[in-house]
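User: I'll paste a sequence; please echo it back and then give the predicted structure.

Assistant: Echoing your sequence first, then the prediction.
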Amino acid sequence: MALWQVFLKHIGDNMTIRFAKLASSAAFASALISLSGLAFAADTIKIGVSGPFTGGSSSMGVSMRDGVKLAADEINKAGGVLGRQLQLVERDDEAKNERGVQIAQELINKEKVTATVGYINTGVALASQRFYQEAKIPVMNNVATGSAITHQFDDQPENYIFRNAAHDFIQAPMLVEEAIVRRKFKKVAILADSTNYGQLGRADLEKALALKDIKPVAVEKFNIKDVDMTPQLLKAKEAGAEAILTYAIGPELAQIANGMTKLGWKVPMIGSWTLSMANFIDNAGPGGEGARMPQTFIQAPTTPKRQSFIINYLKTFNPKGGRIDSPVSAAQGYDSIYLLAAAIKQANSTEGPKVKAALEDLKAPVEGVVTTYNKPFTAKDHEAITANIPVFGEVKGGRVEYAYPEDQKKASEVRVKDVNAKGALAVKK
């Protein structure tokens, strides 16, 4: 071999070694980056947040999401849970059942969430929850109120569905008590939308009325996005209705109020908690004044916890006019994260079955905005709110205030869960 050939071979061998080392280093660096990304992901606790952040239900969805974000931020600033930060994975279900189903599968299979909070719409909850149930991942319903939600899997040995909102078996009897007992109306009409929420609520209202030996003089249905309620209102008027009992959401509720104004016929509106939505109050204007509804939270600084929540919420999200669009949704969203955080901490784990077991036997009270949660759940009872907690709100001057002075006077006294509280419809076994 010639000298120049030996020289080139030497250079080639060295270059091969150097390139191999460089390639090895690059692969190592890439692996480090990949591993650090995995470590970061593993260091967070993922919580799904599912709700309608656009469309007619967004007043509730955005307020809920913001309450959730506020709580998660507070917890993370205080060191997180189990030394790990909470990571919210937010998805807009658009109040559509099929979208809710897609999101549930994504959050479970792709995002690997520890739990999910949310659901504004009863139909979306009922369509989506089965995937979490199958995956043994807890769901904390913080807004949807359909009575069936926490009983969807009563036929199964374990139930992963929890709720910290006042369900319709509580609300429907409250509406009847308000209309028939307190205000002495003899003739009432029911107007409910065609969704699962509206029709299940309508059925609960009819059951509650039947317990008072009252039959509604008219029962009318309408669809989401309907803008003319004249036919339904005329039937109620012609039947002699003295009050309208409602189960629907803000935009359509406003059309009921506006329809009465057009007809020159004004009777009280008494409905489920959704009469407190900003898009009812704003769109109904003067026609919405006096509407009454059950509320677990009214935007008033009646306790130090509530005052702190309101101040921080307004500072962080700056809602128009200093009014939370849906105070109930915001407060319950906030509380739902603290309940989950307490369960994860107690379980010392993010495994679904262990978190579920901890929720069913929380050892330490959880101070929330709505209430202080002292053993809110058991293996057989996944409802944190009982009939003694909600009070009546009333639309006054474009805001929701306490309907009754006695409730306002006692607002600083935190109402806590009472399993013996009377007033709710019985759950069929």
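The two ends are 95 Å apart (CA to CA). Residues 20 and 399 are 71 Å apart (CA to CA).
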